[in-house]
Each structure stands twice: as structure tokens, then as C-alpha cells.
Amino acid sequence: MTVTTETQAIGATRAAEAPARPRFFTWRRFTTPIVVVVVLALLLLWVSTLQLDSIEQRTLNWGYITLRVGEHLSLTVVASALVAVLAIPTGILLAKTRSATVRNVILAIANIGQATPAVGVVILLAILWQTGYTTALVALVVYAFLPVLRNTMIGIQQVDANVRESARGMGMTPNQVLTRIEVPLAVPVILAGLRTALVFCVGVATIATFINAGGLGDMIVNGLKLQRYPVLVVGAVLVACIALLIDWIAGFAEDLLKPKGI
Amino acid sequence: MNALDLDGLLTFWGRRWDDILELVLQHLAVVALSLLIATVVGVLIGILVWNRPVPRSLTIAAAGVALTIPSLALLALITPVFGLGWTPTVLSLVFYSLLPIVRNTVVGLREVSPAIMESAKGMGMSPAKILFAVQLPMAWPIILTGVRVAAQLTIGIAAIAAYVAGPGLGQFIFQGLSSLGSKNALNFALTGTLGVVLLALVVDGAFVLISRSTTSRGLRV
Predict the structure, then answer these.
(1) So where are chain B's domains?
(2) Between chains, do B193 and A116 touch, taking CB under 8 Å as contact?
(3) Which residues of A touch B (CB under 8 A)?
(4) Which of A175, A205, B11, B123 is the most buried (most CB within 10 A)?
């Protein structure tokens, strides 16, 4: 009796999995990159029809644009990597502390941190410390740290107590429970936090221009200040495209890195 | 380099109390106005798409994608058309508020159990009556949660909108930046930032009250 139900159960999960596999690559999955490519092509077409004056020529050339895109991407990627390295272990440690007060205080701080405007953090750091790339990087890390920390803590804590207990019952040590059960089960939540952090970073890296840290914000701000709208539009569209692409790549990675069983 | 001087900050607050209050009110006004518009538009969109699978998933996907666009980029993009000041600010705040509101409206309307819908039909209610007398009141707490999320989001974005001459506390933050190196730079930026944080916390608290007073009496627990 139990044998038949078991085979049925396995069969049922296989049947449920079977259509899920080929659905991984669909047209829908590639909508974002297609839209981004079309938008960039239209942008290029539009700019090439314009008569650029000397100020516009100084910024609307490949050298300048690739430099700014590079700065923007480096800020975003370095900050997100730092956040991943710092916030995930901290989150795991905090989730494992016995004291509920420590956890609640950290979660409360994380909530207040989310209410803090990014411009405020960036500009305050610049006033208190210095302007430039390093300050922007620190501001990005500080700002993106909290969502990842919070998601890691919540991800570990939401693991079903029964699952934890069965792992114990199978003779796993607390460390094994952590590395083989809790962390893998928390991976989807942690990855969602990292994805949010990445998209945050693209947005906040735009603001980095206010403190002389480069990035595509330079083009937006220069375009606004000098009333050169083509410069502004190119900067803004590029930032939006980068944000969309990074979110898309992160979503793709999220699906790939998710433990197979979940 | 600039160290915090608490006495200086207090005198700064004392001297500029009127300015601070005005900026707080402006900030609140622009956020409230945007949320009002976004709620009306968002709930309408939600009503239009909630029971049509293809438009529904398209709308929610589009709104999710829209949310990833950096706010400074959006603000900058609409200034050539809409100029500076309140208009681009309100427009971009509405833009960012729509996702949480539309998503929660759709979820809320779909969560009303089919049994309840059927009893309403059995009582002879027209589809419009069912929507307004049954579904929307039952979905309202969820819709309001969406508005609350949107409020937190827009209070932060409104600070950036000061760069395109938008109203609110962001003006103090940017004034701090432009007076970088002077004695008051830190006071300006700190006041602006703390003001935004406080405002966000107060508004979040206010939503608890709003949700309690606007939820249909039968649904209150």
C-alpha cells in the first residue's frame, strides 16, 4: 500500500516537473533583452540624425559613453559583491543568535534604513567624509546591506521547524543542518534580496554623480544643467536599460541557482 | 571634512523652523497628491485587468519592469516635456506608485472567494454592484497595503525630485550638497535626511489608523 502511494507520489512530481523543464526558455524570458536592444537601436538611430553642437559632441561619443557605462557598472557590481560577501554571513550569524532582542533590534534598524532616502545617505557621507568613487561605493554598500541582511535572516528563520527537526533526527550536527538544510532552503529568499540590492545599486549609482563619483548620472546632470537634451536622454535611457538588463540577468541567475528540489 | 556640532544643529533648527515646517508640508502634500492620483488610476487599472489573464500578467510584468528604472533617469527624461517643479515630481511619483497599487488591487479582487461572489449573484446583484458593494470593500485592506508600500517608496523618491526643482525636504539635502565645505552643509543635509526618515515613519503609522477607519465594519477583527 505504502509502496504504491510512494510510486504514485514520485510519478506525480515527475509529471509536474516535466512541463516545467522546457518552459525555462520561452519568448517571454527574452522579452526584456529584446526590448532593450530595440530601444538602444532606436536611440542610436535618433542620435545619428541629430546635428550635434560642440558641447554635445564632447559627451555623445563612444569613448565618453563607454567610460561612464564602465564606471556605472563597476560601482554597481563591486558594491553588490561586497554586500553579498558582508551581508549574507552576517545575516546567517544573526539568524542563529539565541537572543531575540538582537534580532528584533536589527530588523527594526533595517526597516528604518529602508525609509532613509538614498540621496541623503550619499550626500551626508560626502559632507562628513569626502567626495568621490570610494564614498559612493561605501554609500551603496551601506544602503544595499540592509535588504540583503534582512532577507537572509528571514530566509533562514522561515525554514519549517519540522524540517529542521527531521534533519536533527537523521543525526545531522547543527552545522550540517545549517549548511545542508537551512541555507539551501533560504537561497531563493537570499537571492531575491540580492536582486533587489543590484537594482537599488544601479539607481543609487546614478546619484553618485552628485558627489563626483562618475557614472551615467554625469550625462543626466550635465544634460539638465547645460540644457542639452540629447545628452540627458542618452544618459537616462542607458541607465534605464542597464537597470532592466541587470534585473533580467539577476532573475535568470535566481532561476538557475535555486536548489533543484524547491 | 565636517564634524557634527549638536549646538549648531539645534540653533539651525531654531532659526529655520518655519522653512523646515514648510518643506515637510510640501513633501507631505506632493506625496499625498501623487498617492491619491495613483490610487484612483491603479485601482481602475486593477478593476479592468483582474479577470483577464493576458492583460493582467502583461500589466503586472510591465509595472514590475517600470519599477527598476532609476528615479533620477525618469525625472530627467520627463523634464524636457513637462518642465521643472511639481509636474514632473507628481508624474514620476505616480509612475512608481502604480506597481504596488495595481498588483495589490489585482490580488485583492482575486482573493474574494467564489462562494461569496456567487451568493451576491444569487441575491440579484448586477456585476457592477458586486464589484462596488462586495469585491472592492473586501479587497480594500489589501489595496491599502499597496498604497502604504507606495507611500514609503515615494517619500524617498520625492527627495531626489528636488533636483528637478521638486518640492519638499530634498531641497535641504541638495542645499547641503551645494554648500559643501561651509558650516551649514551638514545641518542642511542632516535635517533633510532625518526629516524624510521621520516623515516616512509617521506616514507609515498613519496608515495603520487609515486602514482601521476605512475598512468595512464587518471585516474589522
Answers:
(1) 6-214
(2) yes
(3) 32, 112, 114-121, 123-124, 126-131, 199, 202-203, 206-207, 210-211, 217, 220, 223-224, 229, 232-233, 235-237, 239-240, 243-244, 247
(4) A205
